[in-house]
Design a protein that fits this description.
The protein is α+β, with helices and mostly antiparallel strands and 179 residues long. The protein has helices at 42-47, 80-88, 118-124, 131-137, 163-176; strands at residues 50-52, 57-59, 70-73, 76-79, 97-100, 113-116, 152-154, 160-162. It folds into 3 domains: 1-39, no CATH class; 41-124, Homing Intron 3 (I-Ppo) Encoded Endonuclease, Chain A, CATH 3.90.75.20; 138-176, no CATH class. The N and C termini lie far apart (92 Å).
């Protein structure tokens, strides 16, 4: 007897009549047990939705609202990049998560993923709430003057300003007569 093509391992019956809509041919084993035709193995379904390019392996299936690939594996929704990493590299230890080094959220190439803590992943990201923390990590103003105790001024909004640049700006305003 033949086995169900969904991967469950159950034996299938012989088709009693030809039904093209169900892909049954009279006298031959049916391909799937009733209700199993959507249950192809996760690996087969997964790799059918991956487009390998010269750089990234792009997920062509469904994306979540922020751009990460997702698909059903068994009875639960999983993120495509995590599935790829776990399938090809190994388990993801507790407390770590994959970070896309290529910055492309739909990429599932394990070589483009690095396991980091959630904090590190967020700090590497490009979110507005981190702009203050990023600003504090800067050691020099955009013109190259150091942010140190002598050259740093906190404005009324609590933002750092370079004293040297502030003085140059004030001189320029005086020269053109702006008050």
């Amino acid at each position: 007897m033949s086995k169900c093509e969904c991967g469950c391992g159950q034996e299938v019956n012989i088709a009693q009549q030809t039904r093209s809509a169900k892909d049954h041919i009279r006298g031959l084993p049916v391909r799937f047990i009733l209700g199993h035709n959507g249950r192809r193995p996760s690996d087969e379904r997964f790799w059918g939705r991956v487009q390998k390019t010269d750089g990234c392996w792009l997920w062509t299936g469904a994306l979540n609202r922020v751009g990460y690939g997702r698909f059903w594996s068994g009875n639960r929704m999983v993120l495509a990049h995590r599935y790829s990493y776990q399938t090809l590299v190994g388990d993801i230890p507790s407390g770590l998560e994959p970070d896309h080094l290529c910055r492309i959220r739909a990429c599932v190439y394990p070589k483009h993923l690095e396991l980091v803590t959630h904090r590190e992943n967020v700090l590497r990201g490009d979110t507005p709430r981190l702009s203050r923390e990023r600003q504090l990590q800067k050691t020099h103003c955009p013109q190259g003057h150091p942010y140190d105790l002598l050259n740093t001024f906190l404005n009324a909004r609590g933002h750092r300003e370079c004293r040297e640049c502030r003085q140059l700006h004030a001189e320029q305003r005086r020269l053109i007569g702006v008050t």
